[in-house]
Automatic annotation (TrEMBL):
SUPFAM superfamilies registered for this protein in UniProt: FAD/NAD(P)-binding domain
Name of one Pfam family that matches: FAD_binding_3
Location of the FAD-binding domain: 4-314
PANTHER family: CONDITIONED MEDIUM FACTOR RECEPTOR 1, GERANYLGERANYL DIPHOSPHATE REDUCTASE
Name of the molecule in the record: NAD(P)/FAD-dependent oxidoreductase
Domain of life: Bacteria
Length: 400
């Protein structure tokens, strides 16, 4: 059987893409070398726009039912000042949540299956099929060759679809940080806590099962020193926030500390004859904005809409399909380039300029302005308009 689309990778980028295409009536095969439920390296905050996507897709109740608590407020402590408050609601959805990937990804893959996608777990793609023009026409894996009009790589940072198509990267910045996290019982507060203190960031995200995910990042230059004593350096970073250190000391760590320094920042060429990339495979960045899942949802919707429109126009129109996928990539880059730049700026952990420090202090003094600022971090307020000189002038003048 030939499919309209094969989606390689069934997590936060792949499953929604497959689900949306299947709901439009297209024949979709969704494969992953993993089986579900299973975990992945991620601290898994879902910003409000991601929760709004889940609501639109009819999955909000299932995700909330996992028992992860709503984050009623964000606290960003920069030392001299703290920006705190609730993030802005999006489409009637008020709170971010931090949902374990074991739960979230299972809900998403089941939703793709329920939508009519054929799902094969434990299916490792080991190559791509091509016709004599070089067009990608399918994948090879444990069940032999499988054909499709479009192969979508939702297969993460080390994407095999990207490797096999020779997709290059652009707007590259190498890894700027090393990141470590663990889960604690007895540490959760009422929301997300982010401490940016010198050359360490410390983050607390309350999550499922009464646990908190406690995350520490250091500049990449400190990675080798950090890994000589991961636990010691991890706890030293937390000790820079004495009240949190006391909670962590009184709490109980229930899982090992996990970490990575493999967090490069780039867009990757994400379209070509018969293929596309979505999620981390096509757009990867440092986790400091905790936006990989939110962005993957948005891109899944952009790609599925583009592919659906092309397949509905002329189901055999290869040129239309390729043009539609190229249009998705342009829309993705236009939307996310400012976020990629801001991510690199934050991940550099350089002290803010005096102008930025003054801006942040002014924002911190106003609850309404703090909520607007969180709109930038969660991706619901466009970055260029927020940092536009006229808007900065408005903030600094104290106008509402
Ligand atoms: C330390 C850390 C903290 C983070 N914290 C957050 C956060 O708080 N919030 C947030 O939004 N984002 C966070 N992120 C980013 C987020 O985890 C990613 O953006 C997200 O996982 C990307 O999802 P994806 O579906 O594109 O890829 P992945 O989650 O990487 O999934 C790719 C899938 O493809 C499958 N696959 C790969 N190769 C093959 C193959 N050959 N055949 C078949 N299947 C294959 C894999 O098995 C995997 O299941 C964090 C990342 C890191 C590293």
């Amino acid at each position: 059987m030939s499919f309209d689309a094969i989606v390689v990778g069934a997590r936060v980028a792949g499953s929604p893409t497959a689900m949306l295409l299947a709901r439009h009536g297209h024949r979709v095969l969704l494969v992953d070398k993993a089986t579900f439920p299973s975990d992945v390296l991620s601290t898994h905050l879902l910003h409000v726009p991601a929760m709004a996507c889940l609501r639109e897709w009819g999955l909000l109740d299932a995700v909330v039912a996992t028992g992860a608590p709503p984050h009623e407020r964000f606290t960003m402590d920069f030392g001299p000042f703290t920006i705190a408050g609730p993030p802005p609601a999006v489409d009637g959805v008020a709170h971010p949540y931090c949902v374990r990937r074991t739960r979230l990804d299972k809900i998403l893959v089941d939703a793709a299956r329920a939508a009519g996608a054929e799902v094969r777990e434990g299916f490792a793609v080991d190559g791509l099929l091509r016709d004599d023009t070089g067009r990608v026409t399918g994948v090879t894996g444990p069940d032999g060759p499988v054909e499709a009009k479009l192969v979508i790589g939702a297969d993460g940072l080390r994407s095999i679809v990207a490797r096999e198509t020779g997709a290059g990267t652009y707007h590259d910045t190498p890894s700027l940080t090393a990141c470590y996290y663990a889960y604690y019982r007895g540490v959760s507060g009422p929301g997300a806590e982010i401490y940016q203190l010198g050359d360490r960031a410390v983050v607390v995200f309350p999550t499922n099962d009464g646990l908190a995910c406690v995350f520490v990042a250091c500049p990449i230059e400190r990675f080798h020193e950090f890994r000589t004593d991961v636990e010691g350096h991890y706890l030293e970073a937390i000790s820079r926030v004495p009240a949190l250190a006391a909670r962590v000391a009184a709490g109980e760590r229930v899982e090992r500390i996990r970490g990575t320094a493999d967090v490069p920042n780039f867009f990757r060429e994400s379209s070509g004859p018969g293929w596309a990339l979505v999620g981390d495979a096509g757009y990867h960045k440092d986790p400091c904005m905790a936006s990989g899942i939110t962005d993957a949802f948005v891109c899944a919707r952009l790609l599925a809409d583009a592919v659906h429109a092309a397949l509905s126009g002329d189901p055999d129109g290869e040129r239309e399909l390729d043009a539609a996928v190229a249009g998705y990539v342009r829309a993705r880059d236009e939307r996310f380039l400012p976020a990629l730049r801001l991510t690199c700026q934050l991940a550099s952990m350089e002290p803010p300029s005096p102008e930025t420090a003054a801006l942040f202090a002014t924002i911190a003094a106003s609850p309404a302005e703090s909520t607007r600022f969180f709109g930038v971090l969660q991706g619901s307020t466009p970055i260029p308009s927020y940092f536009d000189p006229a808007n900065i002038g408005r903030i600094m003048s104290g106008a509402s």
